[in-house]
């Protein structure tokens, strides 16, 4: 993306004030994504899972495509191929999460899905023989304890919804790793828009096979679909792309760790969802476990700035 084009505010690298603006934009993006669990919960009441995913990403593709249409005209085969691959991972992620919302709470979903940040270094260790740092092992341990406190109620097993959200976090971790491997070879903006289109296409294909696809038929369902498509997907993607040019990976990762907090906040404000004391403690452990994997503790204890995450 050319400097100055498609910007929302005037920012330039190396300027603390401009980095602050970029960080604030990332907070807004994270807040939008935190609200997505509430909208998924609203939509899944009247629209089946694959259908909702298809509508969400179909609308996101149209919206983002209208903004970046000049780039889309120049899309090459490699971008389409990579877009289809990322679109499949994105579809897999949101399908499991969306369907899982039938069986769990908004707050649980937000905190459990944040485990994707912990799964990334774990998968890198498995597939690329990268030994996890002690801080990652520490973060994983805290997150697992947190999940147990948040989700287990007398029985040593996750309910179907919590299991699906965990599976969605695993898919998203794979999506992050694959994205890191292929974005260097194509136009990242183009790839981002194309993946939205493929995610929507996969959603509609699976909906036609396993469901009875339909358009929203209530005001609540339309609000959910439009909010998920325009705000949580299209604007979230565009905002992240712009802001990440002017802030650090560490700041980005730490800000994104606030997503489950926003999810719980929206759940409390709009549907009165309240966790138990044990649940709040578990949620706090998950959040701290996720954040701890992104902090260089040695430098903090030495009084220095932490560096970028794994």
From TrEMBL:
Keyword Ubl conjugation on entry: no
Cellular component GO terms, alphabetical: plasma membrane
Domain EamA: 21-151, 161-291
Subcellular location: Cell membrane
PANTHER family: EAMA DOMAIN-CONTAINING PROTEIN, OS03G0707200 PROTEIN-RELATED
Spans through the membrane: 20-40, 52-70, 82-103, 109-128, 135-152, 158-177, 189-210, 222-242, 254-274, 280-297
Official protein name in the record: DMT family transporter
């Amino acid at each position: 993306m050319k400097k100055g084009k498609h910007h929302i505010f005037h920012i330039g690298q190396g300027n603390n004030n401009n980095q602050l603006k970029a960080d604030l934009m990332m907070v807004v993006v994270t807040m939008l994504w935190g609200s997505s669990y509430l909208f998924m919960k609203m939509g899944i009441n009247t629209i089946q899972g694959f259908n909702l995913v298809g509508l969400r990403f179909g609308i996101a593709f149209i919206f983002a495509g209208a903004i970046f249409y000049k780039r889309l005209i120049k899309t090459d085969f490699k971008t389409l191929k990579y877009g289809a691959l990322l679109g499949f991972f994105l579809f897999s992620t949101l399908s499991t999460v969306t369907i899982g919302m039938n069986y769990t709470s908004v707050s649980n979903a937000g905190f459990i899905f944040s485990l994707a940040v912990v799964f990334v270094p774990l998968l890198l260790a498995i597939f690329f023989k990268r030994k996890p740092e002690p801080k990652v092992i520490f973060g994983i341990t805290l997150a697992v304890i947190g999940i147990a406190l948040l989700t287990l109620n007398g029985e040593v097993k996750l309910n179907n919804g919590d299991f699906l959200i965990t599976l969605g976090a695993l898919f998203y971790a794979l999506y992050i790793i694959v994205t890191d491997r292929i974005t260097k070879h194509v136009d990242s903006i183009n790839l981002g828009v194309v993946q939205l289109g493929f995610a929507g296409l996969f959603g509609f294909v699976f909906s036609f096979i396993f469901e009875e696809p339909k358009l929203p038929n209530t005001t609540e369902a339309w609000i959910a679909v439009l909010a998920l498509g325009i705000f949580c997907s299209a604007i979230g993607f565009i905002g992240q792309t712009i802001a990440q040019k002017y802030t650090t990976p560490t700041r980005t990762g730490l800000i994104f760790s606030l997503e489950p907090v926003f999810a719980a906040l929206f759940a409390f404000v709009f549907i009165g969802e309240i966790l138990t004391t044990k649940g709040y403690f578990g949620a706090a452990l998950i959040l701290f476990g996720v954040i701890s994997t992104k902090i260089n503790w040695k430098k903090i204890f030495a009084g220095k700035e932490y560096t970028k995450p794994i």
